[in-house]
Design brief:
Number of strands: 19
Distance between the termini: 56 Å
Number of helices: 11
Shape: globular
Helix content: 25-40%
Strand order of the largest sheet: 12-17-14-13-18-19
Strand content: 25-35%
Length: 379
């Protein structure tokens, strides 16, 4: 039988999930901690000794913090599903000349999809994480909303979560700022956590070098990714590049070509093995095509297609209008709605660096009403 106050908390060993555990305990929850193994080479003997390799450190920090707070804790091996979903998509996107956002897929498939499955097995009606996000009910829907700390707002990475996911979720840090979280860690006897620097790197990419990761994980990578042409927008050859996967939209440094003026990557064409260079001005666009849309209230958007759209984590949302294309059924655990499969998003003012593979997240005021994957820039 489910216990209504039993909650499964994702614990990374960092400050945000640890303070979340403290807050949930103070609110009367019976907290159960879960720490994921997603991409590592940890041997079972290392787990038994609690030492032996650097990749085990965060898992052991989470385990020790849970023990200190008297929290039931589980280490769960998600490496196979993580490789089949997050890593597979990461590799496939780069090999198709796109720039993926693995955190978005990880949140949807692992931190909620798999964690909710484990929550059911452990008798936990709810799950929690240390993300900075709020939840709001509006128009008979449950929405993500911008948190108190707008500088730490992580709703951009959570847009793929279904309403079914959200209705079982608690965000303990929703009303706190990062400085307040650090202060709580100090007050509760975790000075090392309060002073610990945050990592901005992709968890499975060593030294943030995705190029080396691709080379190590793609069969015949060097045979498939060959030297090709840098060209301009008119198709004129400007020089040679070292393989299109080595470049991302907007990149200026490390191109290895001198043109006498600043050059940026403005397009990547894997089908012809060409990388297009242009000026900074060429990176501004007025519209994009978004696919794989997830929308919480299609009727609201049909009534009022004006939104705020964000095309990267640190960018400010900008005014935009949705122009829907065809539609298909999206099934949520609570409801089935007819939602557009794709849309053109037109910006009121040109935006910089529309990047295929990245997410475009849609807001009305502070509510996340949906999102999609950027397919391409549109005229």
């Amino acid at each position: 039988m489910l216990k209504t106050k039993r909650i499964l908390l994702g614990m990374s060993g960092g400050i945000d999930s640890t303070v979340s555990a403290m807050l949930l305990q103070e609110q009367g929850y019976e907290v159960v901690g879960i720490t994921f193994r997603t991409f590592d080479s940890i041997k079972e003997s290392c787990l038994a000794r609690e030492k032996g390799c650097c990749s085990i450190e965060s898992i052991m920090e989470a385990k020790n913090n849970a023990a200190k707070m008297g929290i039931e804790h589980h280490i769960v091996d998600f490496r196979d599903i993580f490789r089949q979903t997050v890593i597979s998509n990461f590799i496939d996107e780069y090999m198709h000349g796109r720039t993926p956002n693995p955190c978005v897929l990880c949140n949807s498939h692992i931190k909620w999809g798999e964690m909710l499955r484990v929550a059911d097995e452990l008798g936990c009606p709810f799950v929690a994480t240390g993300h900075y996000a709020r939840l709001r009910n509006y128009r008979n829907h449950t929405y993500l909303a911008v948190p108190a700390d707008k500088h730490k707002d992580q709703t951009y990475f959570l847009w793929m979560l279904s309403e079914g996911n959200l209705r079982r979720t608690v965000f303990p840090l929703s009303e706190l700022t990062k400085p307040e979280v650090r202060q709580l860690a100090l007050q509760h006897g975790y000075p090392a956590l309060a002073e610990k620097k945050e990592s901005q790197e992709i968890c499975f990419v060593t030294d943030n070098d995705y190029r080396s990761f691709l080379r190590e994980n793609v069969t015949d990578y060097d045979a498939r990714i060959r030297e090709g042409n840098f060209i301009d927008a008119q198709g004129r050859v400007l020089g040679k590049h070292h393989g299109y996967t080595n470049y991302t939209i907007g990149q200026r440094k490390g191109l290895g070509i001198a043109l006498g003026h600043p050059a940026h990557v403005i397009d990547i064409r894997p089908e012809t093995n060409e990388v297009v260079l242009g000026t900074n001005d060429d990176l501004f666009g007025s519209a994009l095509i978004a696919t794989q849309l997830r929308l919480h209230d299609t009727e609201w958007l049909l009534e009022s297609p004006t939104v705020l759209a964000r095309i990267r984590y640190k960018s400010q949302p900008v005014d935009a209008v949705l122009d829907f294309h065809d539609s298909l059924d999206f099934h949520d655990s609570h409801t089935t709605t007819q939602s557009p499969a794709s849309a053109t998003i037109r910006f009121r003012e040109p935006v910089w660096g529309i990047t295929p593979g990245q997410s475009v997240v849609l807001y009305k005021d502070d509510l996340v009403i949906g999102g999609g994957i950027i397919s391409r820039q549109s005229p």
